[in-house]
Each structure stands twice: as C-alpha cells, then as structure tokens.
Write a structure and sequence with these properties.
Elements lengths: L2 E4 L5 E5 L7 E5 L2 H16 L7 H5 L2 H11 L7 H12 L13 H11 L5 H20 L29 H9 L5 H11 L3 H5 L6 E2 L4 E4 L8 E4 L2 H7 L13 H10 L8 H13 L4 H8 L4 H5 L6 H12 L1
Antiparallel strand pairs: 1-2, 2-3, 4-5, 5-6
Helix pairs in contact: 3-4, 7-8, 7-11, 8-10, 8-12
Length: 322
C-alpha cells in the first residue's frame, strides 16, 4: 500500500514499498496527482510491468550531455565540432529538463525554431547527438528511456557548400595570410592537396615522403589510409624538413583575421578543400583519380565537390564541338 504524506514544503510525497522492488518515491504539488501516480505504479507492479524511472527522472539532459561528452565525444575524430554542438544544446531550455520528461514534441519544437536561425544540416547534426545520447543511455548506462528523436521528422538535405574563390580573392587571401608565421603555407597546402583542416593540423614529417612526392595518411576522417600526391607548390609549403608535427596547431584566430583583412566574406577553411578538388576536375582528372587524392569513400560524396566554373566548362564544350 502506498504511503502518501504532506511535507512541510507543501508537496505531497508518495512512498511505495513492495516485495521484489526497491523503495519508490516521488513528490507532487497536489494530492490528486500523487494518488493517480501511486495507483499507476502499484498496478504496474502487480502486473509485473513496472520500470523504475527514478534515475531517468533525476538526470537532466545537461548532465547526460556532459557525461556523453566525456565518455563518447572525446573518443571521436570530430570531437571538437561535436563539443561545440553540445555547448549549443546546453544553452537550450531543454537542457534543464529530465531525460524522462523529454518527448518527441519537445525536440520537434526545437527543430522548427532552430531551422529559422541555422541551416538544416546543422539542425540534423544537433539532433543526431541527442538521438545517439538516448541510445547510449538506454543500452550502456542502463537508464529506462526511449529515443524521442526516432519519432520526429529530420531536416532533409546536406546543405553542401559550393563557395569557391572568385576573382582575385586567392591573391588577397594569401597576401593577408603572410603576416602569420605559417598560415600561408597551410592555405597553399590545402589548395594543392585538398587535405582537411584536421589532417593538416595533425600532419607529421613521418607521414611525408619527399623522395616519392607523397603524404601517407595512415588515419583520415573516414578511418582509411590514403596516399596524397605532393606538387612542387605543396612541397614548398611544407618548409624545411624537421621532426614531429609540421605545424604547431591550426591558427584559427589568424585565419579569421586574414579573411577580414582580405575582405572575403562567407568563406570557410573547408571551402579550400572544395576549391582544390574542383580544380582537379577542371585540370582533366577523372572521378576515380580525384577520389584517390581526396579520400572520399563513395562517388556520391565526391559529386558534391564537382562545382566547375562555367568558363572552364564552356571552353571544353567549344573545343569539343570543333
């Protein structure tokens, strides 16, 4: 039989003791809700359907996100970017809610509001974190929760960027990068090889074989090794051979300052990879050759980068029509 008592605080506290179950307790603002909850729990216990939700009710989304960041995100290749998405979630009002109280409708409302401020792919990635968090909470942390993201519509589209350097933007950018000890070399290497920001930042001399003019990346973003050819410009960008990492770190602030100084808007470092890969196609390399350099797993993924300049396409069309 449930014990229901009014606390000095004014709340109604329910305590249920049943053989074979741990003590179950919960407080309510009014007695009607306390009575209803007690009857439901006792009925579930009688039928062998009761699941203790106390831990899920006591754990907020913020607490779960912090644990997820420590135990899951920290071991991912894209941990830096995912940590930024988690920070965004921690700013949300949903972060204060318990895992047990969160429903699909809550995240659908978040989705719709967020889509008014950021790209759909950003929202899709943010929701993916929550979806995986609930999966980990249920399967590994032993919390009695279901995944609320599975019941809502996900934003469609990848919002693949097509931004390329136009006019004299490359000249202006490289000139602005010259004030930093090695930022210009990083940018040139990105344009010559199509390497990702993280790949360049972690590049070591042990991965460089100048005699063969290649970089041997043992572990890329997709988990596969690949060989990246080095042009003469790329070799020059590497600088004098040394030991350990080639660049101390990725100078994010210097990059932002260079874009401002060069008066270049809406341009991200990853757009250098897009530019580099598009140039490979413009130079006449076929899809499989470019795939070998870029390290993409599928041709479909690579197709996103083939935004060729109309002037170059027209030249090929005119030449082919003669």
């Amino acid at each position: 039989m449930a014990s229901i008592k009014k606390l000095p605080s004014g709340l109604w506290n329910v305590r249920i003791r049943r053989q074979g179950h741990k003590l179950v307790t919960k407080s309510f603002i009014n007695k009607t809700d306390a009575d209803r909850w007690a009857r439901t729990v006792e009925s579930e216990m009688d039928r062998g359907l009761f699941v203790d939700r106390s831990e899920a009710e006591a754990t907020t989304l913020a607490q779960a996100l912090e644990r997820y960041k420590r135990e899951v995100t920290a071991h991912k290749k894209g941990s830096h970017q995912e940590a930024k998405r988690i920070t965004q979630w921690l700013k949300s009002g949903l972060a204060k809610r318990s895992l047990a109280s969160l429903k699909g409708a809550d995240f659908a409302a978040y989705r719709d509001k967020r889509l008014k401020a950021v790209a759909s792919n950003t929202v899709r990635l943010e929701l993916a974190i929550i979806s995986h968090l609930f999966t980990v909470a249920a399967q590994e942390w032993g919390l009695p929760v279901s995944n609320p993201i599975q019941s809502i519509r996900k934003p469609k589209g990848s919002n693949a960027r097509t931004r390329r350097l136009e006019g004299d933007e490359e000249v202006r950018l490289l000139s602005a990068c010259s004030s930093h000890p090695y930022l210009k070399r990083i940018v040139v290497l990105a344009l010559e090889t199509g390497m990702r920001q993280g790949e360049i930042a972690s590049l070591t001399w042990a991965e460089v074989d100048l005699s063969r003019s290649v970089i041997e990346k043992k572990d890329s973003k997709n988990g596969e090794a690949r060989t990246i050819p080095l042009t003469q410009k790329a070799k020059a960008a590497l600088g004098d051979r040394g030991i350990g990492k080639i660049f101390r770190c990725y100078p994010r602030e210097a990059w932002d300052n260079a874009l401002t100084a060069a008066k270049i808007e809406d341009f991200h470092f990853h757009d250098l990879r897009h530019e580099a890969i598009s140039r490979l196609f413009e130079r006449g390399m076929n899809v499989m050759e470019v795939k070998s350099v870029s390290g993409h797993k599928t041709l479909q993924m690579l197709a996103r980068y083939t935004h060729l300049k109309p002037a170059d396409l027209l030249q090929k069309m005119e030449f082919g029509s003669r």
